[in-house]
Amino acid sequence: MKLRIAPLTAGLLSTGLLASGLFATFSGHAQVPTGAGTIAARPVVLKAAHLFDGRSGRMVEPGMVLVQGERIVAAGTSVPAPDGARVIDLGDATLLPGFIDAHTHIADDHDDDWAAGIYNGMMRFPAEQAFHAQRNAKVTLDAGFTTIRVLGAGDFIDVALRNAINSGYATGPRMIVAGHAIGSTGGHCDSAPYPVTRVVPSTPMEGVCNGAEQCREATRLQMKYGADVIKICASGGVLSESDPVDVPQLTPDELKAIISEAHNWGRKVAAHAHGDTAARLAIEAGVDSIEHGSFLKPETLQLMKQKGVYLVPTRTTLLWTESKLAGYPPKIAGKAHAAYTSHEQMLRNAIRIGTPIALGTDAAVFPHGLNGREFGDYVDVGMAPAAALMTSSIGAAKLLGVDKEVGTLEAGKYADVVAVPGNVLTDIRATERPVFVMKNGQVVRGAE
Ligand SMILES: [Zn+2]
């Protein structure tokens, strides 16, 4: 009986959620959340010594933001202070647009013990894992990340959590989610090669497909059940058991089927790709971003610039795995080290060439909530601090297709605001220590 009722319920819910396409994430926010307190009708004036608006690339002093309801009314060195406004003075701090992370795995837990992490993950029911995902989302929001893209999750936990956050039943960032990542049998997006008598092999529903038509089906399935974006595994990966790290894993026909189907629905496609050949095939097929990019050649980075394809470096993850090699199985440690060895020069080349870069971390490989390290990790390889901040603000907002709603401190945008101590341009690592976080006009950290 339950099975008969479930599809009807899902159909009714999806009508409203999917009607607005990619902006389903935001349509939910237009309503007053029912479970997370009420949005104050009283205007709020935020004050701090500095303000970085995320678009101009410049710092202004002092910084002020006027918030009414869930939106920014004005931002700059001075704003009107309406009668009865609540003034929050953050002192010697920098006001910034809420951070955006274009690559997380919010439904997955980090575990310092690789084997224990796999064992525990396999033992949990999806409903139990969803509670873990909620905890991860809260930690990420407290770290100043008010918008995230989730590039792969099991059991549609990301879809469920996004909906719960939009409805006010859970606390976390705005979420743009992929459902299951899509890739070929044995590839990085497939499960480990467990004996089939113990673990049932994945199907297009879980994102594993072979041949253009099956990959089209896998894409349609993710979108049917609520994906805002499609994630593919174009090349091999580090944390997977079967495959070499840099080989292509989808054919041009498979790539075209997935990407055309996603684009038909107004969804973007993010390609996990360490290897250069795999990335090039994905770029030629029309992908919107290359994730990781460890072995990309300068010519490929140049091609990305020409085509407006973003690089999402996940630098923090490369540094994390390199520092923990002894904790991984030897095969995985070898792949992690090879990727790390190539990644720094690749990123320096991308900065020099001017390849568009959107900040993304691959959080879950390292503990959720440390996402802010990515800013300083870009500066460490030669990016200017202002440019590093803009990979998250206007950069990631554009890649995610949400730049009309979030990403900068400007009138009309959702009031997603972070404050970090001191002058962020002279101390980029201050992004790891936010003192104040506002999402959607509601204070979620500090000053309450
Ligand atoms: Zn990832």
How much of the sequence is in beta strands? 15-25%
What general outline do the C-alpha atoms trace?
globular
The total of helices stands at 13
Give the rounded overall mean pLDDT.
Answer: 91
CATH class of the largest domain: Alpha Beta
Strand order of the largest sheet: 3-2-7-15-16-17
Seen as an oligomer or otherwise, the chain set is: single chain
* SS class: alpha/beta
Count of domains: 2
The CATH homologous superfamily name of the largest domain equals Metal-dependent hydrolases
Q: What name does the CATH topology of the largest domain carry?
A: TIM Barrel
The biggest sheet amounts to: 6 strands, mixed
What share of the residues lie within helices?
25-40%
Rg over alpha carbons: 21 Å
Sequence of secondary-structure elements: HHEEEEEEEEHHEHEHEHEHEHEHHHHEEE
In whole angstroms, the N-to-C terminal distance is: 47 Å
How many DSSP E strands?
Answer: 17
* CATH architecture descriptor of the largest domain: Alpha-Beta Barrel
What ligand species are in this complex?
zinc ion
- Low-pLDDT regions: 1-39
Structural account:
By secondary structure, this protein is an alpha/beta fold. It has two domains: 44-98 and 411-445, Urease, subunit C, domain 1, CATH 2.30.40; 99-400, Metal-dependent hydrolases (TIM Barrel), CATH 3.20.20.140. Helices cover 36% and strands 17% of the residues. The chain is built from 13 helices and 17 strands. It has helices at residues 2-19, 24-27, 114-123, 126-142, 157-166, 212-224, 252-264, 276-284, 298-307, 315-323, 330-353, 373-380, 385-400; strands at residues 44-48, 50-52, 59-60, 63-68, 71-76, 86-89, 93-97, 99-104, 145-150, 174-177, 229-233, 268-273, 289-292, 310-312, 417-421, 436-439, 442-445. The strands form four sheets. Strands 3-2-7-15-16-17 form a six-stranded mixed sheet, with no helix packed on it. Strands 5-4-1-6 form a four-stranded mixed sheet, with no helix packed on it. α8 links the parallel β12 (268-273) and β13 (289-292). 52% of the residues are buried. The protein binds zinc ion. Residues 103, 105, 151, 362 line the site of zinc ion.
